[in-house]
Amino acid sequence: MPSDKSKKSSYRFQIDSKFRRSSGRAAPGSIERLQYLESLVNELCVTKVLDYKQQIVANLGNFAHDPRNCPHLIGLDVHLILIEVIREYLQLVSTNPSEKRTSDYLKLISLAVAGICNLVTSSQTIRLQLSHKSQDISPLFNVIQYPLVDPECLANCLTIFINICAPSVHLQEQNCVYFEPNCSTTAFTSTVKTQFPVVVTFARNILSGSITSEDPRLQTLSKIFLVDSFRHSYVCLKNHIRLCYASRHCSNIDVTTSNNSYRLNSTYASALVTPFSPSTTILEKPTQSKVLTPARRTQKPRSLVGWIGVWAVLSKARLTGLVVSTALAGCALAAPSPLVCEAFLAHPAGSLFALVVGTTLTSASANSINQIMEVQYDALMKRTQMRPLVRKLISPVGASVFASITATLGLAILYTGTNSLVASLAAANILLYTCVYTPLKRVSQVNTWVGSVVGAIPPIMGWAAATGSIDFGSFVLASLLYTWQFPHFMALSWLARNEYDRAGYVMTSIVAPQRARTVALRHSLTTTAVCFLASNGINWVGGLATAPFNIALIYYSWRFYRAPLENQGLVKAEARRLFRTSLIHLPLVMSVLLICSFCGTPVA
Known about the structure:
CATH class of the largest domain: Mainly Alpha
CATH architecture of the largest domain: Orthogonal Bundle
Shape: elongated
Helix content: 55-70%
Radius of gyration: 31 Å
Number of domains: 4
Strand order of the largest sheet: 1-2
Number of helices: 30
Distance between the termini: 61 Å
Structural class: mainly alpha
């Protein structure tokens, strides 16, 4: 029997099934395939898990083997990302060769080199880009000189250089530094030596026996690189096409050297046919994608609008909007009652404005502190890996300043614009969310129950803003929010249970899967009881009017509960249906209760 640890690792680094299914069905070059590749690139750029990086790099390399995927891969700058992976991890290996994970680092480097090799052999566009911007492939020079690299990786490196140096790559290129009339017959040989002296030296050492290898392919590839490529120059002579090296006659040369190579700029693509690359006449045009390149991913905003976007994500704008709406609902539920205080009646618009602004700011502060505390874990989850702290769009110090300012302003506005009770509830909720709920997520599944209390406090704040006190009516909507969160979050945590597990969170859906489904069903039933309890303070019409929505919530909770655990696909599908139902359920039920409170007996 496999251990729990092995079972856990078997699904820890799997791509979401939705993307696996779509990639399996999607045709190369389709929008669905592009979306899947975008998800892979996003995960590769933000994840810190080495095993996960290896799987993603291997997947990208496999897609690169099909030329039809190359336009998407070029548009996503996959070749540059893979080169950056090689650069980063080769530096780690070189600076500390005794590192325990050296073998894992070398495996990742080998996978990245193989991916670039597939891209180069499949795409003429990539061949031209790398041959004319050879500083981009400088990490490959270091790879072939590193003694611990396996022969497979070295063979892939040589294959890359054979493809980008082959004369047929540049044969029809206009104004290329490799072509010039009336040049010497040895010009092309000089060019290759000038471009890649490290590779030439390596190939000669392989042929001379100075470097021994058990892989016979290295001998063959070295011979092709040193001999067969140059032989093509004599064929060109018969057709009055000369191959030359950089000279004053070539107009588009940047002669600044970098990493033993010249930076050459030219942009023409023609097909390459060699024993090591597929024949393809596909016209490759990079796909314009919305995915962020590595440079833009960490680029800080340069305008006020950009910073507002960062602050909105830091504040979890959608969650903050839900918090504000429930606070307003609590205030609206109390408005028609005889318990409304004189201060609210004197300035209702000002009190509502203070409630909205103050609640928004305090919620933004709590959510920002939460992201500061969890930034290292957010990087491990797909649903949180694009947050600004993970992408380093804002520093932890900057986020702390933002959280402090919003908390101070929010509490001050609530205190002066409503009353001290509302400000105290907001302060208590910030502390409960940041000091209890957030750390508890990594300790116990009880965090869900604590988090539900956090979500139930905003309606009480709204009630207190209108009445200046906490009465029975304030707990009606609070109880609804408390019970509703269980089917909602149990479904959500089931959908993201692999990611939560990978990040180290202790969720009921992970430690006790059946209990998670039981809790979702139990609290769906409780939600119905709460709605009828609320109708006791309004009228019975309210309880009956909410019945269809409650029945729908119970129905999908029951389906989620009854789905066999052995069929994980079915359970996940039912969890998704329950999650979507819960999103519709809450606003509809709140709307019905509010309408009935104005049309019926005021809540007392």
